[in-house]
Design goal:
Largest sheet: 2 strands, parallel
Number of helices: 2
Oligomer: single chain
Strand content: 15-25%
Strand order of the largest sheet: 1-4
Length: about 70
């Protein structure tokens, strides 16, 4: 799976760099936490609304080809 993720990441970076002048935007989002309002003690988590806001910010700014959601 890691090889596939690395390939996807590189492909998206190439798309982003090659096509942005034509108005095409490409990015990846990696979520490295549990998606939940609350989680058991010791489990990193982020609320769905926070993740949605991160996607929206990434889309509206269009200034980076990847975003990591973690603790």
């Amino acid at each position: 799976m890691n090889i596939a993720q690395a390939g996807l990441r590189n492909w998206v970076h190439n798309l982003h760099n090659t096509l942005r002048e034509q108005g095409v935007y490409a990015a990846t989002v990696t979520i490295n936490v549990m998606i939940a309002e609350q989680a058991p003690d010791g489990y990193p988590h982020r609320a769905p609304d926070d993740i949605a806001q991160a996607y929206w910010d990434l889309y509206t700014r269009r200034d980076q080809a990847e975003h990591l959601i973690s603790t």
